[in-house]
Write a structure and sequence with these properties.
The structure is a homodimer. The first copy, chain A, starts with 8 loop residues before the first strand and ends in a 15-residue tail after the last helix. Chain A has eleven helices and eight strands. In chain A, helix 7 crosses helix 10. By secondary structure, chain A is an alpha/beta fold. Chain A has two domains: 168 residues, Rossmann fold (3-Layer(aba) Sandwich), CATH 3.40.50.720; 104 residues, Orthogonal Bundle (6-phosphogluconate dehydrogenase C-terminal fold), CATH 1.10.3660.10. The longest helix of chain A has 32 residues. An eight-stranded mixed sheet of chain A has the order 3-2-1-4-5-6-7-8, with helices on both faces. In chain A, strand 7, helix 6 and strand 8 form a beta-alpha-beta unit.
């Protein structure tokens, strides 16, 4: 399958953790593919060339050879929205464009308008609190859910191709509408990030009054606040482009907390713990085989 | 130091994750110590004997030899509160008693009353969502904060002995009052647990309407909901014996969430992310050397 004749040439714009990891995975699964890399950080480009990750690199996307089959936009969401308007004049008429942004509705709306039938949004739910090409990992996508968010029916054949390509990298592809994607990840990812930030913030505030708050911390707090170290510039774009759903999610979570607080007084949270425990049973980590959406024939 | 002449005989009541891990650590650091184990689960006792963890075991605490120097109560908090009234008639006049319960005010009050000058509360902030002797790990205490919560001044020499003993197991001992301990861990541990339960519960609820909520989950959610799998019976006791502080902590957290939600609309959470990021800098994992409270001479 890795000898497939598509894609032959792939451009990745943004050689950070995600773009770098995608590149490394492609390099491994598709050794014949020519990889081009673009990053405004010249040191990232130099590193990617030195590592043999890309065969050609540039600090800016310029007119791409028409023979580039696939362009991945792996920058933060704000930069994706700035890049998209430039793409129609820079890429060939057959080039398929996808992205790795964490929110999809705004990006897909713009992509479909500017590159009708040639843009398919994507979002790998992988990553870590680390960032940059130095943290890139060819295994980052393996087993990770990877949403593909087409808009419009005209994309069917391209969608199948792209989904198969990503599945060969080990990703668990799920095809879903952009708005539905944003509604779901507002809870599973964006709310989660904000809770981590809020919890870490509370402990830091308390720690300013009494430094023992910073010492009586176990592994649970460490797990729960690991995300809080994620870089804000990436999250700023995510929060801005999905503010309404995140606002709803925060409202729902606050209601659940209020319920927990009420039951704390009556002394019975068994039902809450039991419900929470169900998540572990359903966890993708426990059930990998079931989670690859069948894609076409 | 491990050739120290105190303690020579140690009894551990409760051979679960914590008691088992404590026993394994003692076995390693103090090979000369005689370990006795008590657990109402006969299979845990049999396993502990088979592993060579303990030299003698029983399903119930009975009259202990007066030569037992130290008894650790490593059961859930509720069982500690039930065990304490039996201890004065079962142990020698020189035996020091400590516990590993997650809340300290109620336990220490009872311990000080029933065993004046001979009870010192303890709480290792270690553990995992797993439980039982099979999950015990001799390294669980290494680097972990370990609160010792004496009540009254008469305990000084015993406190020093116990603190040194635990430091030799690799624990980072912090001496703190029981009420202050409970106020702090209400935020760093108990709130943290409830947030994990609330988040996992929200995703499970959503997942019942749309199973894609259970599929579009990344590593961040996994980290944030790992705690939610902790067994409820242990937490029931913790929540009941620290309800007032946990109630305050939930209130504070809800205020922070409200502030985050307000700022989401104005689009600037930079200050919140920056404050949260400070926790990582202060993280004990980054600063182990500073975190051992000097204990006496």
């Amino acid at each position: 399958m890795s000898e497939s004749d598509w894609p032959r040439r792939v451009t990745i714009v943004g050689l950070g953790l995600m773009g770098g990891s995608l590149g490394l995975a492609i390099r491994r699964a598709y050794p014949g593919v020519q990889l081009f890399g673009v990053d405004r950080n010249r040191r990232a480009v130099a590193l990617a060339l030195k590592l043999g990750l890309i065969g050609r690199g540039a600090p800016k996307l310029s007119a791409e050879p028409a023979s580039v089959d696939l362009v991945f936009l792996a920058t933060p969401v704000g930069a994706i929205l700035e890049l998209l308007p430039c793409l129609p004049t820079l890429i060939g008429a057959q080039t398929l464009v996808s992205d790795l942004g964490s929110t999809k509705a705004q990006i897909c709306k713009m992509g479909e308008r500017l590159l009708p039938g040639r843009f398919i949004g994507g979002h790998p739910l992988a990553g870590s609190e680390r960032s940059g090409l130095a943290a890139a990992d060819p295994e980052l996508l393996r087993g990770a859910p990877y949403a593909l968010t087409p808009c419009g029916d005209a994309q069917e054949p391209a969608l199948e191709r792209l989904a198969r390509f990503l599945q060969m990298l080990g990703a668990r592809v799920l095809i879903i509408g952009p708005e539905e994607h944003d509604r779901i990840v507002a809870r599973t990812s964006h709310l989660t990030q904000l809770l981590s930030v809020a919890l870490a913030g509370l402990i830091v505030e308390k720690g300013r009054e009494d430094e023992r708050y910073l010492r009586l911390c176990g592994g649970g707090l460490r797990d729960m606040t690991r995300l809080a170290a994620s870089p804000y510039p990436i999250w700023r774009d995510v929060l801005r482009t999905n503010a309404s759903e995140i606002d709803h999610a925060l409202g729902e979570f606050r209601e659940i907390l209020e319920r927990l607080q009420d039951r704390l007084v009556t002394g019975d949270l068994q039902a809450e713990f039991a419900r929470a425990g169900e998540l572990i049973e359903h966890s993708p980590a426990n059930d990998r085989s079931e989670c690859v959406e069948p894609v076409g024939g």
